[in-house]
Amino acid sequence: MRSPFAELRRGLVVGEVYEAPNVKTLAVRLVDEVPPPRPGQFNMVYVHGLGEVPLSVSGIREGGRVVEHTVRAAGAVTRALVYREWRGGLIGLRGPYGRGWPLEEAEGHDLLVVAGGMGFAPLRPVLKWVAERRERYGRVNVLVGARTPRDLLFKYELESYRGLPGTRLLLSVDRPEGAWEGHVGLVTDLIRLADVDPGGSYAFVCGPEPMMVNAVKALKERGFREDRIFLSLERRMRCGTGFCGSCQLGHYFTCRDGPVFRLTEVSDYLAVEGV
User: Fold this and answer.
1) CA–CA distance from 153 to each of 33, 49, 88, 239, 262 (Å)?
2) In angstroms, rounded to a whole number, what is the distance separating the alpha carbons of residues 161 and 140?
């Protein structure tokens, strides 16, 4: 049976924000009817004449009629998205694809969000979701890391997270610049400072895979249950449907069965050196 999401839909770019060097967030209003994404899902984003790339959804507005994608310039498609001016222009979208964060399952529990670098993008919708339903969750701790202060994403809204009831935001950079007064070092070092009940908490983690491996180690040392640790493994995805096989992870395909996985599903593969 043909996938109902296989056809390319049109998206009108209605906003652009430069987040960091070589990183931009595009706000896209969906011209064609598309199912609204859930936090943690992704779209295949197409640029005419160049091709398409998988991009996690970094924002969901107006009931899903406007989606945001935060992209870093790397290949031909992503360089075009970052360096061209797109406001008022059309791009193509396929999706939404994949399995998102288990937000309903986590209701009634403390929540620890750990984001490294571009891994903050797929976790940002989690914070928006929780802010709109704050009474459904316990304490919320948000740990965000970047290479330098300039590389921190969504700097214009970080203070709004601190203002949420029962919410704590901790920032870390590898290399301080200017008047930086926050933590210097690995974002995973902050896990020991999280004000949560480890045995009754959920942890959502996204970032470079070495960072996620370190996060898992630190979370387990704090007493987090493996079945309540979730990771977004956005690795080598190309087609969005599992047909090309490039994102195979054991017996899973990241784009089809993930990108969000429960640790108990993928712990054997994360332990492999070089994964």
Assistant:
1) 30, 29, 24, 27, 25
2) 10
Is the link from the previous residue into 210 a cis peptide, with omega within 30 of 0? no
The conformation of residue 78, written as its DSSP 8-state character, comes to H
Model's pTM, two decimal places? 0.93
β partners of residue 17: 25
Report d(CA 146, CA 118) in Å as an integer.
8
What is the signed CA dihedral for 215, 218, 221, 227, rounded to 10 degrees? -10
Q: Which amino acid is at 39?
A: P
Calculate the average pLDDT of the chain. 92
Please state, as a whole number, how many other Cβ atoms lie within 10 Å of the Cβ of residue 261. 21
10 Å CB burial of residue 252 (0-12, 13-18, 19+) is middle
Measured CA to CA, the distance from residue 94 to residue 9 in angstroms comes to: 6
Q: Which residues pair with 253 in a beta bridge?
A: 248
Beta strands in the chain (DSSP E): 9-20, 23-30, 42-47, 51-61, 66-72, 90-97, 110-116, 140-146, 167-173, 183-184, 201-206, 229-232, 248-249, 252-253, 260-262
What would the two tokens of residue 260 be? Answer: 């969000």
pLDDT at 134: 97
For the stretch 17-73, pLDDT in tens is 999 999 999 999 999 888 899 999 999 999 999 999 999 999 999 999 999 999 999
Q: How far apart are the first and last CA of the chain?
A: 33
Question: Does residue 141 contact residue 113 with C-beta atoms inside 8 Å?
Answer: yes
Instruction: Copy the structure tokens of residue 214.
Output: 């370190």
